[in-house]
Design a protein that fits this description.
The protein is an alpha/beta fold and 321 residues long. It has two domains: 2-126 and 308-320, ATPase, nucleotide binding domain (Nucleotidyltransferase, domain 5), CATH 3.30.420; 133-304, Nucleotidyltransferase, domain 5 (2-Layer Sandwich). The chain is 38% helix and 22% strand. The chain is built from nine helices and 14 strands. The strands form four sheets. The protein has a five-stranded mixed β-sheet with strand order 3-2-1-4-7. Strands 10-9-8-13-14 form a five-stranded mixed β-sheet, sandwiched between helices. It has a two-stranded antiparallel sheet with strand order 5-6. A hairpin with a 3-residue loop joins strand 1 (2-9) and strand 2. The longest helix has 33 residues, at 230-262. The chain is globular and about 60 Å long. It starts with a strand and ends with a helix. The model has no long low-confidence stretch (mean pLDDT 96).
């Protein structure tokens, strides 16, 4: 039986797995992404990762016929080029991703942006399986999304579709000034609703780095039981609660607006913040529901269910179509 390899190529790590035609991930491996060594070095390392998995698959009696890649950056799914990328991966923009891997491996390769691959995995076998259309939005280090229609992600004319963190949010303002966004603009959803943005909001609210050095610390502080820890602890805890609430509310309002525009059958929320518990989920969903037009009031809003394997499964689906 023919199998394929799905690859999730991110800014810090690259994971790959051998995937059966039914979507079962049989074996996986992960390597650090050589994000400061340039595109060719990343292609060399990724090809070696894939070749090793293909050998393991062959030893187990599975032939590998192709490779699907979900990659960080804007990916031209027709030419297989990396159109643009953030500085999370130096020298990635302009890399011939598909032809570079194909020439190294002698296998057919297809590629899309990693969030599209994630959404495709959830649409095939995850939370939105069986839906004719689904909107997935991921809230983590950044904010990204994908609209899957009829089993295929909507990539856009210039392959930029899915950048749902980069439109205006009324919450992305401090003292009347729009908050800077990593894209170079200001006042965007990502500037208030991403994980790092929640930590920044915590500090703006008067929180102390001694109490929470990062976003994970903000959530731990907000979840801590109130006790007689002094005024400093109380102020930092209150700042944590406020920061999470504003980030979650901004996230929910943004997704609600997207639902009003796209009218998906199912909505999937993914990313580290979606897994952070009710402190984030409840205000996010409340804001989302408040934003919806009346005919959309009952739209299902679900947590992603495939975890770290979603993008591998979705990438594999690109060559299992």
């Amino acid at each position: 039986m023919t199998h394929v390899i799905g690859v999730d190529l991110g800014g810090t790590k690259t994971a790959a797995g051998v995937v059966s035609p039914s979507g079962e991930v049989l074996m996986t491996e992960t390597i650090p992404t050589l994000n400061r060594d340039g595109g060719e070095a990343i292609l060399d390392a990724t090809a070696a990762l894939i070749a090793g998995l293909a050998e393991r698959a062959a030893d187990a009696g599975h032939q590998v016929s192709g490779v699907g890649v979900g990659s960080a950056g804007v990916i031209d799914a027709t030419s297989g080029m990396v159109v643009s990328a953030t500085d999370a991966i130096s020298g990635w923009a302009g890399t011939a991703l598909v032809s570079g891997l194909s020439s190294r491996l002698g296998l057919a390769v297809r590629a899309v942006n990693d969030v599209h691959a994630h959404a495709l995995g959830e649409a095939w076998l995850g939370a939105s399986a069986g839906s004719a259309s689904s909107l997935m939005v991921a809230f983590g280090t950044g904010v990204g999304g994908s609209f899957v229609l009829g089993g295929s992600p909507v990539l856009g004319h210039r392959f930029v579709g899915g950048h749902v963190g980069h439109f205006a949010s009324p919450f992305a303002v401090s003292d009347g000034v729009p908050l800077p966004c990593v894209c170079g603009s200001a006042g965007h959803v990502e500037a208030i609703a991403s994980g790092p943005a929640i930590h920044e909001a915590y500090l703006r609210c008067g929180g102390s780095t001694a109490s929470a050095t990062d976003t994970r610390g903000v959530f731990a502080l907000a979840a801590a039981e109130a006790h007689d820890g002094g005024a400093s602890f109380g102020a930092s805890r209150d700042a944590a609660v406020r920061a999470i609430h504003v980030g979650a509310t901004a996230a929910g309002q943004a997704v609600g607006g997207l639902i009003n525009i796209l009218d998906p059958e199912t909505v999937v929320i993914s990313g580290g913040l979606a897994d952070a518990g009710d402190l984030w989920w409840k205000p996010m969903e409340a804001a989302l529901r408040q934003e919806l037009l009346a005919p959309l009031a009952a739209v299902p809003v679900l947590r992603a269910s495939l975890g770290n394997s979603a993008a591998i499964i979705g990438a594999a689906k690109l060559v299992l179509l």
